[in-house]
Amino acid sequence: MPTRIVFFGSPDYAVPSLHACLGIPDAEVVAVVTQPDRPRGRSKAPQMTAVKEAAVDAGLTTFFQPEKVRRDTTEALRALAPDIGVVAASGHILPNHLLELFPHQVLNVHASLLPRHRGASPVASAILAGDEVSGATIMRVVREVDAGPIVAQVETRIDPLDTAGTLTDRIAELGAELLGNVLPRWVAGEIEEQPQDGSIATFAPKLARSDGTIDWREPAEAIWRRVRAFHPWPLATTTYRGEPFLVHGAWPVAGVPGTEPGTVLAGDGAELTAALPGRTSRAVVACGEGALALLEVQRPGKRPTPIEAYLNGDRELIGSRLG
Do the bridges between strand 106-110 and strand 133-140 make them parallel or antiparallel, or are there none, so unpaired? Predict the structure, then answer.
């Protein structure tokens, strides 16, 4: 008999793990549990989650979309006689009556190297913390958030050019590949789980839009990590001429002593780094320590624009004070 999988997931991050489950020999995804369809875009028309869209494209037909997982969902899943659950960012809290349903437990594909960065924003938190590596952890789900025993892990180096978006995509693929290899061995009883060391756990709280607000009194290195960690959401934000001013890309450089934080100075035109071929410091913002060369910015109602093009239309940015 094939292993009967119930997949729990909602955003783009979860789609590679769903595909991995669909590709496991002698396994069958018998149901998908995902967030409800929600209004999006200007039309406000209800749209499927990324996981539901991928599942529909794969020919799956059994979906559950509760706001909260209650006993009626558990009983409906029980009727499908599942063997194992797989979670990848479903956005649901899974109660005990659901966890107890699966003979082979529930595995979670978490986007960090647990016990580091338990919680809702592990990728952004890894970049904010200045971690050199991150990765994916497959763990057995318990009632405490991301505290279950570790089944397997895979690492990836955090590149200086990584944003939360690029790093999330890479971790999603690595985690999915690991899941495809681990799940059959887990069901066969060939893997021994390892408990987490809770004494060294760190936590990654859910992000809010206000988290993106830049405080130019911080060191340039910290603001640079903030720009990367909050891309593509909620985006690093300051103010210019009384309006929001978004910073999509930046690079830390040497500061000018005595300059008030937030002041925009003309750069010296020097190339920034070998990692950024052709990019020069055209506009530099003084920080509490060091400075930040702006690379890509956005005004309200406009598209993100490379700083070179932006300055062609707004030379008054130089000499202004942000924030």
Answer: antiparallel
| Nearest to 292, CA basis, from 323, 124, 131, 164 | 323
Q: And the tokens for 49?
A: 């989650």
Distance of CA 15 to the CA centre of its chain: 13
User: Alpha-carbon distance 240 to 316, whole Å?
Assistant: 11
Question: Is position 322 within any domain?
Answer: no
Rounded distance between C-alpha atoms, residue 270 and residue 199, angstroms: 46
Coil, strand or helix at 192? coil
CA atoms of 1 and 273, how far apart (whole Å): 57
**Identity at 315, one-letter amino acid code:** R
307 domain residue, yes or no: yes
The one-letter amino acid at 269: G
Per-residue pLDDT tens over the stretch 43-90: 788 999 999 999 999 999 999 999 999 999 999 999 999 999 999 999
Question: Nearest-5° angle of CA 125, CA 130, CA 132?
Answer: 105
Cβ-contact 300, 278 below 8 angstroms:
no
How many domains does one find in the chain?
2
Tell me, rounded to whole angstroms, the distance of Cα 47 from its chain centroid.
21
Asked if 204 and 112 touch (Cβ cutoff 8 Å), the reply is yes
Return the amino acid letter for 36.
P
Nearest CA to 81 among 22, 30, 20, 32?
30
| Residue 41, pLDDT above cutoff 80 | no
**pTM of the complete model:** 0.96
| Structural domain that includes position 116 | 3-204
Domain CATH number, residue 21? 3.40.50.170
